[in-house]
Specification:
17 helices, Protein Transport Mog1p, Chain A, alpha+beta, four-stranded antiparallel sheet, 3 domains
Length: 479
Amino acid sequence: MRRYIAIGALASVVALFDMCAVNPVTGKKQLVLMSEAQEIQMGKDADPSIIQEYGLYENKELQDFINQKGKAMGAVSHRPNLEYNFRIVDSDILNAFAIPGGYVYFTRGIMAHFNNEAQFAGVLGHEIGHVTARHSVIQQRNATLGQVGLIAGMIVAPQLGDFAQTASQGLGLLFLKFGRDDERQSDDLGVEYSSKIGYDAEQMASFFTTLERSTALQGGSSLPAFMSTHPNPADRNVTVAQRAKEWKSKLALNNALVNRNVYLKKLEGLVYGADPRQGFIENNVFYHPQLKFQFGIPAEWATQNSPSKFQMASKDGKAMMILSMAQGKTLQEASVAMLKQYNLTVVESKEITVNSLPALSIVADQKQEQTSLRTLSYLVQYEGNIYHLIGVSASTDFDSNVNQFTTVMQSFKKLTDAAKLNKKPERIRIKTLTQTISLEQAFKNYNMPAKRYEELAILNGMYLKDNVEKGTMIKVVGE
């Protein structure tokens, strides 16, 4: 018996050795659980779901810009043969991320906060670095071996996080949190790659300061998405600046590019903040002008909106709700698809109306390894669509949350308020100063609300007391 166990163990070691690959950046062997072909296929398979989840931002100039710079950087990277793909997605979150196979995504929110091409290039190189060093693939290995996943942006009990993953089509495994060593390596690669295409990589360090200031403005309670999945190594700014100087010397880069005004001009008219056309919150009500519906949301619940769904969670993380579009042409078809999607067993189902709209109310359970969940769903038929509102909690917590779930669901109704239907998004407007004044005075001159001065200073990568020279371009916001 022992002999067979030893042979089996040896076979396992040999199999693991076969799964070792040489890291393109370090040149060292490492254990991975997928080939490069599998890595590329994973990216191809995930890309449509990410686009569905976030939506592409329709701006040809910016899309062409990220493609041009990304392709140039990919060509000088440690994996020049990969077919890189670059997207700007329609989200106001400050984030950039890469997935296996060479797919890199920047949000319009992070694009808004860069103040020159060099900052953009540094972060773009950083994300390409995650790809070339195969960080996402290694994280996939760790997730597979350790059964660890992450739901970005939602603070909920683990079992509810697992449930939310079903709604996100498993995308959470692609957004695993990188370690500090990975971040240091990607910072180094961002400096190297952006320097090699001619940019001043010291500017990347100043952008990390912008991210830190954005965190502080929110009281540290809600990290920008970039920093929640890209932990900040110690002395990051100092290290990046030092590496940038070294690469400038190595490449004899005496006139490194910054291109501030060129970049700022590209931002004119960029949608800033939440786009009300995708839904917005006012006074604890969620409005969706394009789809013409509204419903109330519980006070003090955390919320997260995307083109494909709206999520919210209670402050204690013990209850969450999700609004999404249901699959099926009838309420009955939608209920069958919903139950299958979430692996639910019906406890009770009945036909109802919600503000004169035909609907189904379904209580159903989901059994998990450690515990069980109970859900309340309303499937509501409205203007050719079927909307699925679901409330989820542990079975033991369901009775204390069901009234809250029901109140929200029964508030779903047609949106008729013209002011809400016609609400316009804020956009970045580029202004050129006609005199040398402080940034604070410039905001006053352009009639910006005083309560937003600090936010706008961060957006500009400046401080309110900074003197800004005549002829300098700055960002303000307006319709």
